[in-house]
Amino acid sequence: CERQLIPRLSLRSSRDKFSKGVFVLHRQSAKKHARADKTKRNRNRHRKATLRTVMKQTETALTEGNVDTAQELCRTTVSLLDRAASKGVIKKGTANRQKSRLTRKLHALTAEAA
Prior knowledge:
mainly alpha; 70% helix; 0% strand
């Protein structure tokens, strides 16, 4: 009798580099951690996507030369970067580097406009 392979839902994504195939969590605490990880992963994805969108809008405003819009978007972007760094979505150094680059571009734009 041939054994049929039953596909099981993996708790890890197929892109996970640590995944060694399909496995099933047995301990209740492990299942709970897997659920929490999924929630956190989705939350972090949303935060990163929002951050990328606002950063693109800020870059567009800076390249077009809209000083008022760029200042407001830069303020929002800095706030989102700080929040993402404090929540551990991105590293603090990454947030500081991106804030520095944005503010340098903004100062150059305001000096050019004045």
